[in-house]
Amino acid sequence: MAKARKSYNLAERRRQRAEAFGGMTYPIDGEDGQVVEIPYMAFWSDQLTHAVWDGDYPGDTEVLRMAIRETWPEEADERLAAFEDLGLQTGDVMEIIGEVLKVKPTDDEETSTADADEDGRDEGTEPGPGSVPAKAGSLGKSRNSSTR
């Protein structure tokens, strides 16, 4: 009997990934009650990922704008205006970008912390490719230009 061929079910894997993240976007609750969503990097197109990481890093705030612009091109003006209305401070941007650039859920979202060592990983495991932004450390790009 022939062995069943394994395939990558794109719709199912994306559904599972979104479920693991709690959605495809990171919501930012503004002080006025308005919610602005930024898509997690795990759901960005390949073109957006290359636009961010190839060449000079555009700055954290601009990365968030780029993600909004590409994800919702028909609604970009309205969504970008709402994003600007948030009046984010540098500390806000740094915390938000840290969440948005995840390409897989953190270990504490996937496993209980009782099973993990002090840095959040299961003992005996190496950090996965999604534990930091893709190629961020190897590119040598500065992310100090958060206000751009």
Automatic annotation (TrEMBL):
Region span, Disordered: 101-148
Q: Where is the composition biased (Acidic residues)?
A: 107-121
Instruction: State the protein's name.
Output: Tail assembly chaperone
Organism of derivation: Actinomadura violacea
